Amino acid sequence: MRISLRSFGVKLLLLLVLVVAAAQLGTFLIVSRANRAEARRQIASDLIMAAGEFHRVVAYRNDILATGASSAAGDYAYKPLFANPASDPATLVSALHSVRLRIHADVATLLTTEGNTLACTAGIAPGSDVLRRFVAAADADPSPSPRAAGYHYLDHELYSLVIVPVRAPDIVAWLAVGFRIDDALARWLKDLTRIEVSFVDQEGQLLATTLAPTTAAALAETLPTLGRHTEMVTLPLAGESALVTTRRLPAGEHAATLALQFSLDEKLRPALTTERLLLVVGCGSLAFAALLSLAFARQLSRPIEALAAHTRVIAAGDYAARLTWDRSDELGRLADSLDAMSEGLAERDRVRDLLDKNVSPAIAAQLLREGAALGGEEREVTILFADLRGFTALSERLAPHELLALLNRYLDRMSRPIEQQGGIIDKFIGDAVMALFGAPVATSHPAAQAVTAALAMQRALAELNVELLAEGQPALALGIGINTARVVAGNIGSSRRLNYSVIGDGVNVAARLQSLTRTADYHTDIIASAATVTRCAEAARERGPAAPADFIARPLGHAAIRGRHEPVEIFAIEPTALRVSSFAG
Fold it and tell me: What pLDDT, on the 0 to 100 scale, is given for residue 585?
């Protein structure tokens, strides 16, 4: 039997094979994703446990050293020597070495009550601010046995230190003892937790690690790009994916980083056997589906040509033609589906006709509900105007195709924050953007959304300028004006071509506010009217008193607006130190 690629049997074969393939692929992907999710969950739990174990180990060893140091500080063999600031430095160092060996510490230091170093078994700056802070913290401890602990660099090595008082009977000095953060500690922690451990200073230099040299070098190179306290990130290290957690170890101005990692590939190796078995089963299922489908591949002679002819009618654009079959089998249902498809294509053409007249999805949805008729309604809307400064100078410097590419790149970056905050692009006017918030679809806080979008546009332009400067192109600047007012919003144009927009005095005010950003005395790129700031304040009150401020509205006084008799109170919009949150929706 000759099988044509256009025959119904082949289509049935492909359908069944695709269904089985999709099911098998879906199963494989679900299992694979579950395996990876579970592996990541287990690793995350182990990393958190290892970080906690490290801090418990440090606290435990500090407690032991503090107990031993307190005992040594009260020992009459040492107390007279430690309590006398005029003691011979060499004798003090010898005594400190004796204390260090006695309590199994790696370093011992004697400090004055002000935190200055009298003697130390390792190299240390005489006026260490870190040790002074340790002394101040211990001095503030109200307990009968005051002490303080922390991390500090000695001879370019990281130590965990704890200080205890030397009494005679009042506190006359402080004894600091500690242990080194080194490879031995890292290996011990790895044996305890089965997690790879590394310590890195703030310059990215390894202090201690359990990793192989190549992996450790890759980790040290990557760590400076991460935060000092990262819960879990995935890093490619030495050809494998590893999950890494970091913890900051404060050591004065020179902090260190504890990096804990576990290989994701190693964790997944047992699961890969199951996934390979699933692949074998999936291939067998596909072969069975192909054989089953071939059993149903028969030469069909009756309705196929009619169906093909009907599809050609639809392809020609005649969506009104219908099949008049009276049958309830699969081909009958296929005929019904073709009729439904004709109706869907006709509806698609109607939608396309509407979309030819309006570009915003929100406007298109409104037109589908209400129809494309001239007219509008009065409503409160926040209008945002953004203009690219120095565009004329750019036009003179750049070739037309370069200018167009730069302009499109700029408008793309500026459009995203507007759309993310629920606004719509009303129009592009050369290098300027006019956007609406609160029309055609009403939103809860259009003014706050507009201000949030403006601040996001500032940040997006700063990011774009970094890219442009790296490419040797000039940086861009913009000004943004925002006004909230009652305007007429609706479809404007002719019966053949419509454009959704807003008209009214509020639109003119927004455009003029954008022009005022060029005023040097204002020192701002974003100017909003008092009406917009008032609506933002109302939105902030709805969010609650505990919510952080998103921006600062700096009063600029009243400004005369061309075309208006009364001046407008205006404000400069400036971001706070906190990240601006989203009002979208």
Answer: 41
Distance CA 68, CA 63 (A): 9
412-445: pLDDT as tens digits:
999 999 999 989 998 898 889 999 998 887 888 8
Alpha-carbon distance of 109 to 119, in angstroms, equals 6
**Distance of CA 439 to CAs 443, 456, 509, 542, Å?**
8, 20, 18, 21
What average pLDDT is seen over the chain?
81
Q: Look up residue 548 and give its two tokens.
A: 């952080």
Kindly state the tokens that stand for 68: 């031993």
Residues sharing a CB contact under 8 Å with residue 330, sequence separation 6 or more, in sequence order = none
Classify domain 194-266 at the CATH superfamily level.
YNR034W-A-like (3.40.1840.10)
Q: Are 498 and 491 in contact (CB under 8 A)?
A: yes
Please determine, for residue 99, whether its predicted confidence score (pLDDT) is greater than 50.
yes
What is the enclosing helix (H) or strand (E) of 301?
A: none
Mean pLDDT of 479-502: 81
Cis amide bond preceding 440, omega within 30: yes
Domain borders along the chain are: 8-45+268-289, 74-180, 194-266, 303-355, 373-575
Give which of 513, 234, 232 is closest to 382, Cα–Cα.
513
**Coarse DSSP helix, strand, coil percentages of the chain, rounded to the nearest 5 percent:** 50, 25, 25
Superfamily of chain region 74-180: PAS domain (3.30.450.20)
Give the count of beta carbons closer than 10 Å to the beta carbon of residue 438.
26
Chain centroid offset of residue 425 CA: 25
**Residue 363 burial (CB < 10 Å; 0-12/13-18/19+)?**
buried
- Give the residue among 175, 186, 187, 208 at the shortest CA–CA distance from 100: 175
Asked: is 373-575 a CATH 3.30.300.180 domain? The reply is: no
Whether the model clears a pTM of 0.70, i.e. scores above it, the answer is: no
Work out the average pLDDT over 242-256. Answer: 84
**For the chain, what percent of residues have pLDDT higher than 90?**
28
Radius of gyration of the chain (CA): 37
